[in-house]
Amino acid sequence: MIKQLVAGLTGVARAIRVMLGAPDYERYLAHVTSAHGGCVAMSRDEFVKERLESRYSKPGTRCC
Amino acid sequence: MRRIIQPVVLILLALLGAASFARLALSRGEPVNAAWMLTAAICTYVIAYRLYSKIIATRIFELDDVRPTPAVRLNDGRDYTPTNKWIVFGHHFAAIAGPGPLVGPTLAAQFGFLPGALWIIVGVAVGGAVQDFVILCSSLRRDGKTLGQMAKDEIGAVAGYTALVAVLGIMIVLIAVLALVIVNALKSSPWGIVTIGLTIPIALFMGGYMRWIRPHRVLEVSAIGILLLVGALYAGRWVAENPAIAPMFALSGRSIAILIMVYGFFASVLPVWLLLAPRDYLSAFVKIGVVIALALGILIVLPPLQMPALTQFTDGTGPVFAGKVFPFVFITIACGSISGFHALVASGTTPKLLSRETDARMIGYGAMLIESLVAVMALIAACVLTPGIYFAINAPVGALGTTVQTAAEAIRGWGFTVSPAELQLLAHQVGESSLLSRTGGAPSLAVGMAHLFSGVLGGSTAMALWYHFAIMFEALFILTTLDAGTRVGRFMLQDLLSHVWAPIGRVSWYPAVVMSSGIFVAMWGWFLYQGVLDPLGGINSLWPLFGISNQLLAAVALCVGTTVIMRMGKARYAWMTLLPLAWLSIVTLTAGWLKIFSDSPKLGFLSHARMLGDFVAKGALPPGVASVEAARRMMFNDRVDAAVAAFFLVSVIVILVDSIRVWMGIISGRVSPGSTEVPYIPTAAYQVETLVTHSATT
């Protein structure tokens, strides 16, 4: 019961982070390990930096 | 059973919607309740969503869940990630919702509530939402290509480059006008300036916290940030109520303009994790929170609309901005009804997140309907003020004079009543020394919101807190558009300039970053500063330029959409994008032409410059102008504004002509339609193919 609740809340928190446009490292890591077994994933810091730089460098992420 | 119930419900909604429109349109004299406007809007949205968007989804694009989306095919865990449709909806809405739909309707309220309401509600159903949806689908079928790339690939290189340069021009005007809205809201307001000023160290603290104290705890730090914002609100009040220090923070418009330019420059050169990203998180929470609060406030209070359905200013003599209801209501409303900027979002991050093609309908068409609802609520918030108070806040100094007596006199001259004592009392209630001529829409919206919120919670004693809360929220997310926009503009400028001189294109070379940021800030800063000096308030000339540029971008997007539809061999449905395109072209070209060439000095940039020139030639000073130099400077500004408007007009014409050339070619069979869509591979076949390639490589 409590386990389910925690899992639910974690899911909600993650959904909110994605809506905010915050980098989602867990998902990236899961993707890299499952789809590209041989590749080395970026560290969390590298990933967050790369994502944020990319988000604020081109039009199309926000509007007036 | 469903087949019977659905049409019956839709017919009932249509009748209810029609009755609500009738109630709005036929009101004469007595105030109409805001509930009618909301009902008219929601009924229209439901019907448009069920019936109109279905044509795009099933007839034009034939959205098909078996066809894998770019997120599925190109999944990289970064840009391309298949995401739940409600999350994408939230993401897309947060990206398209900005200050535009709040400011535009507030300004358009000078014509009365009816013209604005009609254009917001009808325009979104046949224009804005169609544009967003069609561009989203087009990009979805092209691996998430951007609008600029699609303009180049579908129409041609000329249209592509014109679109690119136009986007940069639009960003400059957009940032300048938004900054001007903030200046007008914060000048001589110690409370406002302290509260907004504190949001910058709060963001820096959040950035540092996420970097060093608790890395990457976005939600935790946002919660702390929101608490600190509440603290900033009270800190502002403490300063404003302290006569020893309050005057130090009562800054002039010029000082605030310069501070905003400095801020914009630093936002563009500092690392994003430090300032931009934390501000963005904070602003997103505050934005969604306030939109929900505004909706609740309106639903609970269900206020009567004090503004008449139509004012006499539909004839073009209005003090808030010049020009008749046609074409200027369509220019002024901007984002709440159709916004070209959304096409950048719909061809930016969003198409790379969709996990199923059919989700595009709710996200492309649906999110825009909600944005339009926000615009309707902003219009309601402006119209719950009595017309006297609305015009006292929104008319420029040139029309009102500087005292409550002259203002009340001027407003009486327009046929509305408000006493000097009432104006004084309202300013006192919201904790400001004066609310006169706080043009730009933000302060009157804040007064309207404070009026609604204090009606629900706290009564008139809480007015001042609610007012500054609303100002803080507007300034917060305007500044978030401004800082992120400056950074994006800097990148675009670097990209353009690198064709002239390659080293300036290096995005991580500090001298290039500083130089291009400086140039870009100077570009919008120039317009901002002229707007601050302008005795007519600046909003008067800048907001129409912004409206024209935003509709121009929408015209580009609709040209791209139409071309995409024709290339798919669906020319018989091209009317869906041609209809709004034709209307926008008429509106933009007429408005642009009038702004440049109108004989009325109030409306036309060139005739205004001529009028000033005549005064100077006679050795006299135009009314409200302090010196000959000031008059000359204003003449120069008028000519620059005219040139900018002309640039936007020429861009529309170039893109239209280029597109029509392609359409004629396709229809006559001279040009092979040749869709540039990624070829259709159904999911099952796609999976087999990926398995095969995977096993082949391993």
Query: Terminal Cα separation of chain B, in Å?
Result: 54 Å
**What oligomeric state do these chains adopt?**
heterodimer
Radius of gyration of chain B: 25 Å
| DSSP helix fraction of chain B | over 70%
With strands numbered from the N-terminus, the spatial order across the biggest sheet of chain B is 1-2
In terms of DSSP E residues, the strand content of chain A is under 5%
Helix-strand pattern of chain B, N to C? HEHHHHHHHHHHHEHHHHHHHHHHHHHHH
**Mean model confidence by pLDDT of chain A:** 85
Quickly give the CATH architecture of chain B: Up-down Bundle
Number of strands of chain A: 0
Outline of chain B, from the CA principal axes?
A: globular
E-strand count of chain B? 2
Please report the two chains with the greatest interface, counting residues with C-beta closer than 8 angstroms to the partner's C-beta.
A-B, 38 and 57 residues
- CATH topology-level fold name of chain B: Amino acid/polyamine transporter I
Percent strand of chain B: under 5%
N to C succession of SSEs of chain A: HHH
Helix content of chain A: 55-70%
Number of domains of chain B: 1
Query: What profile does the largest beta sheet of chain B have?
Result: 2 strands, antiparallel
Supply the number of helical segments of chain A.
3
